[in-house]
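Quick one:
INPUT:
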């Protein structure tokens, strides 16, 4: 019969292999942040430059499937929940988009 320690090890290994454990840890961190977030303390206004920088960071996080990290960024920074239009970003940054793979 398996011991409790062995069952815990197998469960942890299975959750890690499925990618669930990382998601659970990230979700717990996000929820702890939300619980500790002091809504009574106003955030400084988000500058135009920071808005663009945060949007680039969000795009990177979402591209790499770091959705919980992106949700913490949005919550903590005051970034709008709806992403900025990609064409707007390209114009503002004087960038160009590669037509083959939609990268900037």
């Amino acid at each position: 019969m398996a011991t409790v320690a062995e069952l815990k090890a197998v469960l942890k290994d299975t959750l890690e292999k499925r990618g669930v454990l990382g998601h659970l840890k990230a979700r717990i961190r996000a929820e702890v942040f939300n619980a500790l977030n002091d809504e009574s303390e106003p955030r400084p206004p988000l500058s135009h430059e920071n808005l663009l920088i945060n949007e680039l960071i969000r795009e990177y996080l979402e591209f790499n499937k770091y959705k919980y990290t992106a949700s913490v960024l949005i919550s903590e920074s005051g970034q709008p929940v709806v992403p900025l239009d990609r064409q707007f970003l390209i114009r503002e940054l004087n960038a160009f988009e590669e037509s083959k793979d939609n990268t900037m």
